[in-house]
Amino acid sequence: MALGPTRDVVLLESTAEVLASDALPEDTGAAFAAKLGWDPRGRDAWVFLSFRPHRILAWREVCRSGS
Predict the structure, then answer these.
(1) Which DSSP string corresponds to the chain?
(2) CB-based contacts of 13: which residues, under 8 Å, 6+ apart?
């Protein structure tokens, strides 16, 4: 999985687990709903993805001044 724009990237090598919309732990589901303002739990068409990183790489664009 890659996060961020193309010049400032975080790359995660991970294992992903698919959780049915009603299989998310209650406290995690409540935090998700509170943060995003909507709650997809209990909807058959939705799933949650849980990522367990094995390796994380991060880099930023090189800034060159005076050129």
Answers:
(1) -EES-TTSEEEEEEEEEEEETT-S-HHHHHHHHHHHS---TT-TT-EEEEEEEEEEEEE-PPP----
(2) 53, 54, 55, 56
Residue corresponding to tokens 């687990």: 17
Q: Which residues contact 59 (CB under 8 A, 6 or more apart)?
A: 8, 9
Say what the pLDDT of residue 7 is. 78
pTM confidence score: 0.61
Query: Does residue 48 register a pLDDT over 80?
Result: yes
Reading the block at residue 42, the tokens are 């209990």
Report the largest interatomic distance among the alpha carbons of the chain, rounded to a whole angstrom. Answer: 56
